[in-house]
């Protein structure tokens, strides 16, 4: 169903018309994960913990959020780090989307996080409506200013 078809239908409210258009895009496979921040530079720490929040959205190629998408994806997210002393953790590997958005809090243990060390949050590849959505990462690099 092309957008011209919806545009020609009388009596459809503009908000409903736009919702139908974005759902049509999803049914055609126009979906991708967008994480923010994709990259982050932080100052190294000395025996200190830290937290950061990463958001993940299901969007179409034009940047519209697929607000219809509500799902908890088991093993949808993971965390890794290169720290010699610290450990990055997340509260759960389940990635829960509400209205097309999910939030993950990454926590770094109370250790020294040194120059060039990283933590990487990975949103796993997922299948939505039969389409494979590519994995994405959010990488924090500790760098001395």
Estimate the mean pLDDT confidence: 91
Strand-pairing-aware structural class = mainly beta
Reported for the largest beta sheet, the result is: 4 strands, antiparallel
| First-residue to last-residue Cα separation | 53 Å
* Strand arrangement in the largest pleated sheet: 1-3-8-6
Q: What CATH architecture label applies?
A: Sandwich
Outline type: elongated
Strand content: over 45%
Task: Figure out the total of helices.
Answer: 2
Q: Low-confidence runs (pLDDT<50, min 5 residues)?
A: none
**CATH fourth-tier homologous superfamily:** Immunoglobulins
Total discrete domains: 1
Number of strands: 12
Radius of gyration: 19 Å
| CATH class bucket | Mainly Beta
Question: Helix fraction?
Answer: 10-25%
The ordered H/E elements are: HHEEEEEEEEEEEE
What is the CATH fold-level name? Immunoglobulin-like
Provide a short characterization of the protein structure.
The protein is mainly beta. 13% of the residues lie in helices and 48% in strands. The chain has one domain: Immunoglobulins (Immunoglobulin-like, Sandwich).
Describe this structure in words.
It is a single chain. It is elongated, with a radius of gyration of 19 Å. It is 13% helix and 48% strand. A four-stranded antiparallel sheet has the order 1-3-8-6, with no helix packed on it. The chain is mainly beta and 145 residues long. The protein has a single domain (31-142), classed as Sandwich (Immunoglobulin-like). The protein has helices at residues 3-7, 14-27, and strands at 32-36, 39-42, 45-59, 71-73, 77-81, 88-89, 95-97, 101-113, 118-123, 126-128, 131-133, 136-142.
